[in-house]
């Protein structure tokens, strides 16, 4: 019998194991399933498939995999850390790699909408006035008619563009292909990014971390922003030069930012970002929602069916592209 090993969360592995077994049973698939908390036990189990988060245990295992391992299914969308730690091993040992891209798109779309409304409706001002028992009325602005730039027009970027278009915003994008996408007025190739940021009111970073995207929002890029621009990052902290962003925010050079991801997580107490003006900080929760694990297991089952049928995966990661 083929074997599946699970190493997602020590506190929840047993529960997740039962949910995977139930999903396999409902799909009419017969596999042996066990959960583990360390690489040694997983190695001894000789699994055909490993399901897990991209943590140190799984990275260690993939770097020196058991001969039986054919496929690693990551229960996350971002894969840059796995590729950095064990990318070559996937190729050398012919191990397939899939993730759960797409399952977080709706939750992250709502996060982006919430942060835009926070800035557009001056929510920080009303919170401050409440704390000071003040009643001062000032007119509000609207998202309708504003311009949004989405950097990275994948599953998440498309969902963000959809809601922005519905609200009457002008939506443009930048992607590696530059191909046209529904709800986007125009999608440009990466060499146009510096030009595109000049007119955007809101810039949403939804691109994966690769050698091409790392530190792309540096001092030179930020210098092209309008003073009215708000930057929202739901991708990876490594795409932004955090010190430069802090300098621009504190100098009032850009209107604001909302960051859900950082170069170091948890964000250290010593980070300059904590004291920044007009900055919303959230602890990497834009795609963290109550139904996430169920959708992740559903995504795995869809991949497993396709793998058995064709030898391919629905959400296979390209090692060469980095996503």
From TrEMBL:
Pfam families in the record: 2-Hacid_dh_C (PF02826)
InterPro entries per UniProt: D-isomer_DH_NAD-bd, NAD(P)-bd_dom_sf
CDD domains on file: 2-Hacid_dh_1
Domain of life of the organism encoding this protein: Bacteria
Keyword check for Oxidoreductase: yes
Keyword vocabulary terms for this entry: NAD, Oxidoreductase
Record-level Gene Ontology MF annotations: NAD binding; oxidoreductase activity
Ranges in a coiled coil: none
Location of the D-isomer specific 2-hydroxyacid dehydrogenase NAD-binding domain: 114-286
PANTHER family in the record: 2-HACID_DH_C DOMAIN-CONTAINING PROTEIN (PTHR43333), D-ISOMER SPECIFIC 2-HYDROXYACID DEHYDROGENASE NAD-BINDING DOMAIN-CONTAINING PROTEIN (PTHR43333:SF1)
Name of the protein described by the UniProt record: D-2-hydroxyacid dehydrogenase
Taxonomic lineage: Bacteria, Pseudomonadati, Pseudomonadota, Gammaproteobacteria, Oceanospirillales
């Amino acid at each position: 019998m083929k074997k599946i090993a699970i190493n997602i969360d020590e506190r929840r592995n047993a529960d997740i194991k039962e949910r995977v077994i139930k999903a396999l049973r409902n799909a009419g698939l017969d596999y042996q399933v066990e959960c583990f908390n360390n690489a040694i036990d997983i190695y001894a189990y000789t699994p055909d498939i490993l399901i897990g988060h991209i943590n140190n245990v799984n990275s260690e295992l993939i770097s020196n995999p058991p001969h039986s391992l054919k496929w690693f299914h990551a229960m996350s969308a971002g894969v840059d850390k796995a590729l950095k730690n064990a990318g070559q091993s996937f190729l050398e040992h012919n191990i397939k790699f899939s993730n759960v891209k797409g399952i977080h798109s709706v939750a992250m779309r709502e996060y982006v909408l919430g942060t835009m409304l926070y800035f557009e409706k001056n929510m920080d001002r009303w919170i401050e006035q409440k704390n000071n028992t003040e009643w001062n009325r000032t007119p509000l602005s609207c998202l309708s008619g504003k311009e949004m730039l989405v950097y990275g027009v994948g599953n998440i970027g498309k969902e963000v563009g959809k809601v922005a278009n519905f609200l009457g915003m002008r939506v443009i994008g930048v992607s590696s292909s530059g191909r046209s996408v529904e709800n986007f007025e125009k999608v440009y190739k990466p060499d146009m990014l510096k030009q595109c940021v000049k007119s955007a009111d809101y810039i949403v970073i939804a691109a994966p971390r690769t050698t091409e995207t790392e530190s792309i929002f540096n001092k030179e890029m930020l210098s092209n922003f309008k003073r009215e621009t708000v930057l929202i990052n739901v991708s990876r902290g490594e795409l932004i030069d955090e010190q430069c962003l802090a300098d621009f925010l504190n100098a009032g050079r850009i209107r604001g930012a909302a960051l859900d991801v950082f170069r170091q997580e948890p964000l250290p107490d010593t980070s300059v970002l904590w004291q920044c003006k007009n900055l919303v900080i959230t602890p990497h929760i834009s795609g963290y929602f109550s139904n996430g694990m169920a959708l992740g297991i559903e995504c795995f089952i869809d991949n497993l069916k396709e793998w058995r049928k064709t030898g391919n995966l629905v959400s296979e990661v390209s090692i060469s592209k980095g996503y």
